């Protein structure tokens, strides 16, 4: 496919004001009658041809203002419909197309999932339903009539408000939905099928009554209550936190079992991957509950940031996604623990976005060119996009940020906007020039900030010298300094934070220093002896911090920093250093050695803390992938695995008694509740058992077996099973078999079972994965199953995917090639597992390259896979 460039944007030559659709559902031959009210766009070229997009469409008929078109007046193919000389006035175009929802394995456009008709139109799926100007700056008012056999599809849902429904001859029925809010076609949706419903109601702050519905597979209604509860809380929160009120009389959510992503924010009719709707104590973990809450909120929040204000073009994707991720992170922080949420988000950012930003797929938050837009729903657009908004708020302050958001909602409502439109609101509200800040949207790569500190005991001054640099990324070799807000404080051995007075007599407001040059320095005065600088508090910018701190200073921060994020960070840094040193030792054929400092401090934390969720985060040592990223080059995943195992075993032994006490102290009785405090207790208890077992399997395995057998909730059951899975032997195999049998009829739970086994860091795992592909519940045509087994193996089993013999790479390449014919989006995502290939040691690098070249050489690759493999090899 030819590259699409931001600089080439121009408005359409025609506008579409209203769309009237009549969809006659049929499993293999659904007919869509579309009536489009079209007019020339005053901002476009007069007299231009009208070129409508299509994708795998069959045209049945086309008419203009009710009359047939002359054969030479138009040209149609599955991928487009062109009217050579349309009228230079408003006109009506009637188009009938026919599609086959059952054969639609790409899960874009109209398809069937377990017999339920549903749609996915973002980014370019509407063109698989009817010919259209399929781009987000074409906004229209939609009326949708859906007709189906009543026995096959008793429930018929569309965007907007329900208008009419009724019976038809021959067992058919219909429903009409009208959405009064102009929207781009990527927000169009319909659903038809046999579905169970859990309902609710909410009255908005201006008194609008809204009927809420969560639709799921019949029989699973009891698992939909938490999603409904999360929806109600999201609606309330958005009114209170952002002044955003819902704007229709109905809001529906439908869970389907075949979905390429997490969920979709279609206007008034969100469609969800059922993994992010269905939850019961016996089948969902605390992490599942938290993810459901976050994704329900995220899709709901899109109603304002994405739907009412949409994107002018797909380059502006971060306008809706970065902002909406920021909003859902704030929601979860308010509903749960803010520091723990921040730690979890930063962990995910580093694991996904930092990895992306340092490899061949790196791109700016707002890319300037793409070949396949589906490949740009990335951690950079979403998570780094959210970090940019967070920095904006830090820099201009919460009041100006709120004023900027209010202005944005007011000024841009009903429009298809750009990042420039968005930033202009904040520049105006704050009176600040944001032109330098806007570089965050254009420049790819993770900046590094190096800090040197010098304390003068006589003058009682502390000088901090900062220097920033950003490594080159594909297509951007030269980098400029960005605006980096650095929140900081000073921590003394006694733990008191000293005031931050600058040399010119000011107090550093909110502890904020802004680094916007390549190098700059800050001198603080009246600093008591021995301060430890606590920098980048709360992870105030998405950068790598290089700060020379010794073990004693790290322990001071870990024990005494008033900023919980930096307490956690100090522990992570300490553990990371131990592991990096252990990797070096192992590669030099030496046994790794550890000092006691980290394990002792951990024991102290366990004895003193009542913030269980925070302590659990501290105990989750940096992952193998984190260590690999820290090493950066010539990575030997086996050495990383063994170094991490050795540290976990050492800590487990050193703090064994404290871990055992913690485990028994946190035992709970009473019914399961997914609230944050209860989840925190469980997470710490399971983390304690995990480390205890790492240090002394003889002590831990019987405890894990007992917990596995007696658990009344999935968190504790899978927690125990995950621990057992790390230790080869009959205990593991028996527990895995029992779990597989017990949940044989529950695909979402089996996904956890597939994933656990795919993550086992042993040489036999690849064969185990191959064997599991023959399990009756496994299917490559279901994205959740494929991600659970193949995706976990490739993305979350560092040592086995990167086997020295290259068998892991060959397996993934086979999977990608096999999937590319049926579901290219899924295939391309899996292929992303190769994104770090150049940072491996030479032998593995060569093996990875061989497999990438094998994929690249295949004829007829989809644009999705072709784009990823080309960029990966560039
Ligand atoms: N805005 C939604 C993106 C999405 C998507 C994109 C491409 C292919 C399939 C898709 N399903 C959903 C989800 C969101 O960010 O809210
Ligand atoms: Zn989103």
Q: Please state the structural category.
A: alpha+beta
- Give the fraction of residues assigned to helices: 40-55%
Can you tell me the residue ranges where pLDDT is under 50 for at least 5 consecutive residues? none
CATH topology category name of one domain: Immunoglobulin-like
Distance between the termini: 17 Å
CATH 2nd-level architecture of one domain = Sandwich
So what's the overall shape? globular
Mean pLDDT: 97
CATH class of one domain: Mainly Beta
Which molecules other than protein and nucleic acid are bound? (3S)-3-amino-4-(1H-indol-3-yl)butanoic acid, zinc ion
Round the Cα radius of gyration to an integer and report it: 28 Å
Keywords: Aminopeptidase, Hydrolase, Metal-binding, Metalloprotease, Protease, Zinc
Organism: Alsobacter soli
EC number: 3.4.11.2
GO biological process, one term: proteolysis
């Amino acid at each position: 496919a030819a590259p699409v460039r931001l600089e080439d944007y121009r408005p359409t030559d025609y506008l579409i004001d209203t769309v009237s659709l009549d969809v006659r559902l049929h499993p293999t031959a659904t007919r869509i009658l579309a009536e489009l009210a079209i007019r020339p766009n005053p901002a476009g070229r007069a007299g231009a041809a009208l070129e409508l997009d299509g994708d795998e469409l069959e045209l049945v008929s086309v008419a203009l203002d009710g009359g047939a078109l002359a054969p030479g007046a138009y040209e149609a193919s599955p991928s487009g419909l062109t009217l050579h000389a349309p009228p230079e006035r408003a006109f009506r175009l009637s188009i009938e197309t026919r599609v086959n929802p059952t054969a639609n394995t790409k899960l874009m456009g109209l398809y069937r999932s377990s017999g339920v008709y549903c749609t996915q139109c973002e980014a370019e799926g509407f063109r698989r339903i009817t010919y259209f100007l399929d781009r987000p700056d074409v906004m229209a008012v939609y009326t949708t009539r859906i007709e189906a056999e009543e026995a096959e599809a008793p429930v018929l849902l569309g965007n907007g408000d329900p208008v009419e429904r009724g019976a038809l001859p021959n067992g058919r029925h219909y429903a009409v939905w009208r959405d009064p809010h102009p929207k781009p076609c990527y927000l169009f949706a319909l659903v038809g099928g046999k579905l169970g419903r859990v309902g609710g109601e909410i009255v908005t702050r201006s008194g609008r009554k809204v009927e809420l519905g969560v639709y799921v597979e019949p029989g699973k209604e009891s698992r939909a209550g938490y999603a409904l509860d999360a929806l109600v809380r999201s609606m309330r929160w958005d009114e209170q936190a952002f002044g955003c009120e819902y704007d229709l009389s109905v809001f529906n959510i439908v869970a389907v079992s075949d979905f390429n992503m997490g969920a979709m924010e279609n206007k008034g009719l969100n469609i969800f991957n059922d993994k992010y709707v269905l939850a019961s104590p016996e089948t969902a973990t605390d992490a599942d509950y938290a993810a459901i809450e976050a994704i329900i909120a995220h899709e709901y929040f899109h109603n304002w940031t994405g739907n009412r204000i949409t994107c002018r073009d797909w380059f502006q994707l971060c306008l809706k996604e970065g902002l909406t991720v920021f909003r859902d992170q704030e929601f979860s922080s308010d509903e749960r623990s803010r520091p723990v949420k921040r730690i979890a988000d930063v962990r995910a950012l580093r694991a996904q976005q930092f990895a992306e930003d340092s490899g061949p797929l790196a791109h700016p938050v707002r890319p300037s060119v793409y070949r396949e837009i589906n490949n740009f729903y990335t951690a950079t657009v979403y998570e780094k996009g959210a970090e940019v908004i967070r920095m904006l708020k830090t820099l201009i302050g919460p009041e100006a940020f709120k004023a900027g958001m209010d202005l944005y909602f007011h000024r841009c409502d009903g429009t298809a906007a750009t990042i420039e439109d968005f930033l202009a609101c904040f520049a105006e509200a704050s009176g600040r020039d944001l032109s330098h800040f806007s570089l965050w949207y254009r420049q790819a790569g993770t900046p590094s900030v190096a800090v040197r500190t010098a304390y003068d005991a006589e003058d009682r001054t502390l000088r901090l010298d900062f220097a920033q640099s950003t490594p080159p990324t594909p297509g951007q070799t030269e980098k400029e300094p960005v605006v980096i807000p650095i929140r900081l404080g000073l921590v003394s051995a006694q733990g008191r934070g000293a005031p931050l007075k600058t040399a010119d007599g000011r107090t550093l407001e909110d502890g904020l220093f802004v680094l916007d040059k390549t190098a700059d320095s800050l001198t603080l005065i009246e600093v008591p002896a021995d301060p430890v600088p606590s920098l980048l508090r709360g992870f105030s910018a998405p950068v790598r911090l290089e700060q020379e701190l010794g073990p004693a200073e790290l322990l001071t921060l870990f024990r005494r920093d008033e900023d919980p994020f930096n307490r956690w960070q100090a522990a992570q840094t300490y553990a990371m250093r131990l592991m990096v040193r252990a990797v070096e030792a192992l590669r030099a054929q030496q046994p790794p050695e550890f000092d006691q400092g980290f394990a002792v401090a951990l024991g102290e934390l366990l004895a003193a803390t009542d913030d269980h969720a925070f302590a659990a985060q501290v105990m989750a040592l940096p992952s193998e992938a984190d260590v690999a990223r820290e090493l950066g080059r010539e990575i030997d995943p086996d050495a990383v695995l063994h170094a991490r195992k050795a540290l976990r075993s050492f800590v487990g032994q050193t703090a064994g008694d404290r871990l055992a006490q913690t485990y028994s102290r946190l035992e709970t009785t009473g019914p399961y509740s997914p609230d944050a405090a209860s989840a925190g207790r469980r997470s710490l208890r399971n983390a304690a058992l995990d480390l205890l077992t790492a240090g002394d399997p003889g002590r831990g395995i019987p405890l894990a077996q007992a917990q596995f057998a007696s658990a009344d909730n999935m968190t504790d059951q899978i927690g125990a099973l995950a621990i057992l899975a790390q230790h080869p032997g009959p205990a593991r195999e028996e527990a895995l078999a029992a779990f597989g049998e017990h949940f044989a009829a529950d695909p979402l739970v089996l996904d956890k079972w597939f994933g656990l086994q795919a993550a086992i860091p042993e040489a036999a795992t690849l064969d185990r994965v191959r064997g599991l592909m023959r399990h009756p519940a496994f299917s490559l045509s279901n994205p959740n199953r494929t991600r659970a087994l193949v995706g976990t193996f490739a993305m979350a089993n560092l040592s086995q995917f990167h086997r020295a013999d290259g068998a892991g790479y060959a397996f993934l390449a086979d999977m990608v090639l096999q999937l590319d014919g049926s579901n290219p989006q899924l295939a391309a995502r899996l292929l992303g597992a190769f994104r770090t290939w150049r940072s491996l040691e030479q032998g593995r690098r060569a093996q990875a390259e061989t497999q990438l070249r094998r994929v690249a050489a295949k004829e007829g690759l989809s644009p999705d896979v072709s784009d990823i493999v080309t960029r990966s090899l560039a």
